[in-house]
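Field log, afternoon session.

UNIT: design team B
ACTIVITY: writing a sequence onto a fixed backbone
BACKBONE:
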């Protein structure tokens, strides 16, 4: 074999090896690219799952707050009604006490007038008696 043949075979083998190496590098590149894409997809899924979970938590909290707000409003309405009833009851009692006070004032005034009239009559009678007593 001549040097050219050895060099040709050698070049052919080198080219063949370079082709295999290039194919292997391309296969590695494609494999790595596919794995990187899989990782990106996993990260997107995790991110989406996290977002969905946060949304569920927020919705849950919003519902709980709404339920608690409704319960609190009902309790406040109940207290408001109860306090209103008690205030109305107090108003009725005050009105009854004021009426009783007026009645007592009227009775005292009548008795005072009657007592004044009786006292005046007794005084007039005493004066008349004193006039008729011989001196």
């Amino acid at each position: 074999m001549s040097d050219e043949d050895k060099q040709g075979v050698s070049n052919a083998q080198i080219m063949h090896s370079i082709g295999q190496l290039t194919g292997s590098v391309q296969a590695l590149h494609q494999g790595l690219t596919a794995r990187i894409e899989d990782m990106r997809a996993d990260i997107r899924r995790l991110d989406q799952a996290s977002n969905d979970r946060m949304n569920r938590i927020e919705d849950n909290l919003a519902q709980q707050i709404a339920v608690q707000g409704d319960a609190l409003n009902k309790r406040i309405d109940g207290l408001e009604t109860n306090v209103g009833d008690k205030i109305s009851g107090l108003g009725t009692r005050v009105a009854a006490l004021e009426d009783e006070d007026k009645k007592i004032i009227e009775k005292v005034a009548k008795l005072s007038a009657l007592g004044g009239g009786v006292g005046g009559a007794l005084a007039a009678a005493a004066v008349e008696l004193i006039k008729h007593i011989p001196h």
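LOG NOTE: The CA atoms of residues 74 and 81 lie 10 Å apart.
NEXT ACTIVITY: expression trials, pending approval
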